Amino acid sequence: MTTPTNASGASASSSARYLLRGASLLGRERVDLLVEDGRIAQVGSIAGAPGATVVDAEGLVALPGLVDVHTHLREPGREDAETVETGSRAAALGGYTAVHAMANSSPVADTAGVVEQVHSLGRRAGWVDVRPVGAVTVGLAGEQLAEIGAMASSAAQVRMFSDDGMCVHDPVLMRRALEYVKAFDGVVAQHAQEPRLTAGAQMNEGVVSAVLGLPGWPAVAEESIIARDVLLAQHVGSRLHVCHVSTAGSVEIIRWAKSRGISVTAEVTPHHLWLTDELVRSYDPVYKVNPPLRTQEDVEALREALADGTIDVVGTDHAPHPSEHKECEWAQAAMGMTGLETALSVVQHTMVESGLMDWARVAEAMSVVPSKIGRVADQGRPLAEGEAANITLVDPSARWTVDPSRQATKGRNSPFVGRELPGRVVATFFRGHPTVLDGALNAPHPQAAPVVAQ
Amino acid sequence: MKHLLSTRDLTPGDAIGILDTAEEMAAVNDREVRKLPALRGRTVVNLFFEDSTRTRISFEAAAKRLSADVINFAAKGSSVSKGESLKDTAQTLEAIGADAVVIRHSAAGAPHRLAVTDWIQAAVVNAGDGTHEHPTQALLDAFTLRRHLARVAGTPSAGADLAGAHVVIVGDILHSRVARSNVWLLTTLGARVTLVAPPTLLPIGVEHWPCAVSYDLDAALDQAPDAVMMLRVQAERMNASYFPSTAEYSRLWGLGDERFDRFDTPAFKDTVILHPGPMVRGLEISSTAADSDRSQVLRQVANGVSVRMAVLYLLMSAKESAR
Ligand SMILES: [Zn+2]
C-alpha cells in the first residue's frame, strides 16, 4: 500500500513528504493530500509530488487526527497497567494524535512537577500529543484545591482539570474550582457520582442488579451531580465538562442546560454507546466499569444525544488494568475498560452504520470539539492547506475481530473481546509523520515537537 | 445439570427431579445405617470464604452419607486470607482432584466464575453467594413445603409440584439470597409468592419479579397463605436508615405474638412457618411462634441434608457419565 518513490522513503523524518492519494475527505469528496514539513501543503487533485512517499488512500476516509479527552495512561505509579509509551502507541493505532492523560496516577498529577513529568514522557514517546490533566483537589481527596495555576503555567500548559475516578462532591469546592479555572481559560471535567448514593456500588441499579444481588449504582447519583454542576457553572459563568455521561436522564439535564446557554460540554464513552448491564449477568469483570453499563434505553438516548450534539464528544475513558485485577470475583475486580484501539470502530458501528452520524460529525465528536475543550493547539483542525498534518486514514470497509492479546495497550480488559468490528485505522499522521502505516505501528515522531496550549 | 448456581436455571422438571431424589435420600436418612456407597472415591471440597457452620456441616453430612471424601477449606486462616486469589485457590483444588466444589462466598457471582472459567473442571455448587442466591436453601424450603402440603392433602409428595400453594416471604428481601432463590424456585414449581418488606428493603426492579409485593404484613396474612417464611433481619440495618428502630420493625414486619394469634383461626389451620435460620428472636419472630408446632425450622435443617445429598449425587453422577 505504501510505495516509497525515493531512497529517503518512509524514513522517520518529519521533513519527509507524503502524498496521500485518493482519500475521501471526511467521507465526502475524493482528494489527494500532500504532507510536507509537518503541515498539509496541498489539498486537491495533485498530479505529482517529486520525492514524496505515496500512500494509497483509495477508499479510505481522511479524518483530522483523533483527540481523546479522557485517557488513563497510569504512569507514574502503575506502570504494570500501562505506561505513557504503551498507552500512546495504543492511541496512535486507534487513530489518535492527542490524548488527555487523567490525573489519577501515583503520585496524583496535582502539582506542576507531576504534570511536567507526564508531559515530557509523552514528548519522549513521540506517538501523540500527551496533554496532562491536572487534579482539581490535592490527592483527589476532594478537600483542598490543587495548585491549578502552577499546573496551567507549567511546561505542560494544563487546561483541563479533573479529579476523575472521584467526584468533586463538595458543592462549595466545586464552585470554587469552576470559578478559579477561569483565570487560566481552564475547564473542570467532572466525574459525576454522588458518593453517598453509590457507596459500595457494583453495577447499574435496576432490573438486572435486583436479580444478581449486586449493590446498585443508581442513575440519580450521576444526574443529581450534573444538575447541580450545570447550575453552578451558570451561576459563576464557567466552563464545565461532564465526563462519561451514562444515563438518559443526564442527557435531558444537559439538553436543558444547553438550551439555557450554560457553557457545558459532555462526553460519552464508546462502551456506553453499545453495551448494557445485561452483560453483567455473566459476572465477568471485563464488564465492570464506572459509571456502570446501563440499559438499552440509556444506550439509545446516548446515541441520539451524540447525534444531535447534546453530547459533544466521544471520550474513551481508556482504563487498562493488570489481568489479576480482572480475573477475580466481581466485587473485588477493578473498574475500567480499555478503549483507545477500538473507539473509532465502535463509533462507526454504533453511530455511522446506524445512520445517526456521517464522518464529518465523527470528526467533530472525536477531534474538533475534543481539541477545543482541551485547548490543544494544532489539533482538530480542518484538513486544509497550511494546517498541521494530523490526519487519520480509516478503511471503513474493513472488518476485524478484537483480540486483546494483540493490542498495544498493556491492558487485556477489552469488553469487545471476540466481537467483530467495522473499520480499521490504516494510517495516522502526527505532525506530518506517519506513526501508523498499513495498519501497523511505524515509528514515533523523530522530533520532540513542543506541545503547547492555544 | 453440571453445576447448581441459581434456581433460575432450573426447569420444573429439574426441580421436581431434585426433590424426588431428595425423597429417596431422606429414606436413607431414616435407616439405621445412613450411608450409601454412591460417591465412594470421589472428593467434595467445601470451600467456605464466609463462616457458616450450619451450611457447611449440612453439606459435609450429605457428602459423607454418600461415601465421598470431604475436604473442608475455610478461607479464614488459610493462604486465601493472605491475598491468594480465587483463581489460584480454584487451580489448587483442581490439582488436588476435587470432583465437586461447594462454595460459599461473600461476593455475588463467585460460584458462577468458578463454573464458567477454565480454572477448575469440578462441579460447582453455590452454597450462598453474597446477596445473590442460595439455591440449596430454596430447594430444602420447597422440599419441606411439598411434604407439608402432601401430608395435609393425604397424597404422596414424590412427583408433585407446588401448584396452588401461596407463600409469603417477609423481611430483608434486598439483602437476601434466600429470598431470591425462593422466588425463582417456588414460582417455577407453580406456587404463588408474596414478598412483604419495608420499601427500603426491597430491591429496585422487584416489580419485574414473578411475584406480588406488599408493604403490609397484615394484609398479606389476610390471604391465609400456606406458608409464611420469615427472613433474618440484621439490627445493624437500622444504622443505615433502612428502618428507624428494631421496635418499629418488629411491630410492622415481625411475626410477634399478636400476629401469631391469627394462626389460631380456622383459615390458618394448615399454615406453617419457615425460617432459614439463624433466627433473631424478638425481632423478626417471637419465641412463641418460633417454638410452636407451626414452625418447620428443625424439619428444614433435617431436610437440608437430604436435599444436598440429592444435589451432590445428581451433579457428580452426571459428571461421571460425561467423562
Ligand atoms: Zn471517571
Automatic annotation (TrEMBL), chain A:
SUPFAM superfamilies: Composite domain of metallo-dependent hydrolases (SSF51338), Metallo-dependent hydrolases (SSF51556). Its EC number is 3.5.2.3. It catalyses: (S)-dihydroorotate + H2O = N-carbamoyl-L-aspartate + H(+). GO terms for cellular component: cytoplasm. This is Dihydroorotase. Catalyzes the reversible cyclization of carbamoyl aspartate to dihydroorotate. It is an enzyme of class 3 (hydrolase). One of its GO terms (molecular function) is allantoinase activity. InterPro entries: DHOase (IPR004722), DHOase/Allantoinase_Hydrolase (IPR050138), DHOase_cat (IPR024403), Dihydroorotase_CS (IPR002195), Metal-dep_hydrolase_composite (IPR011059), Metal_Hydrolase (IPR032466). Pfam families: DHOase (PF12890). The active site is at 317. Zn(2+) 1 binds at residues 70, 72, 164, 317. Residues 61-248 form the Dihydroorotase catalytic domain.
TrEMBL record, chain B:
Gene3D superfamilies: Aspartate/ornithine carbamoyltransferase. One of its GO terms (biological process) is amino acid metabolic process. L-aspartate binds at residues 82, 177, 232. Its EC number is 2.1.3.2. Carbamoyl phosphate binds at residues 54-55, 104, 134, 137, 277-278. It comes from the Bacteria. GO terms for cellular component: cytosol. Residues 164-315 form the Aspartate/ornithine carbamoyltransferase Asp/Orn-binding domain. Coiled coil: none annotated. It catalyses: carbamoyl phosphate + L-aspartate = N-carbamoyl-L-aspartate + phosphate + H(+). Pathway: Pyrimidine metabolism; UMP biosynthesis via de novo pathway; (S)-dihydroorotate from bicarbonate: step 2/3. The keyword Ribonucleoprotein does not apply. Keywords: Pyrimidine biosynthesis, Transferase. Transmembrane segments: none annotated. GO terms for molecular function: amino acid binding; aspartate carbamoyltransferase activity. NCBIfam families: asp_carb_tr, PRK00856.1. Belongs to the aspartate/ornithine carbamoyltransferase superfamily. ATCase family. HAMAP family: Asp_carb_tr. Heterododecamer (2C3:3R2) of six catalytic PyrB chains organized as two trimers (C3), and six regulatory PyrI chains organized as three dimers (R2). This is Aspartate carbamoyltransferase. The gene is pyrB.
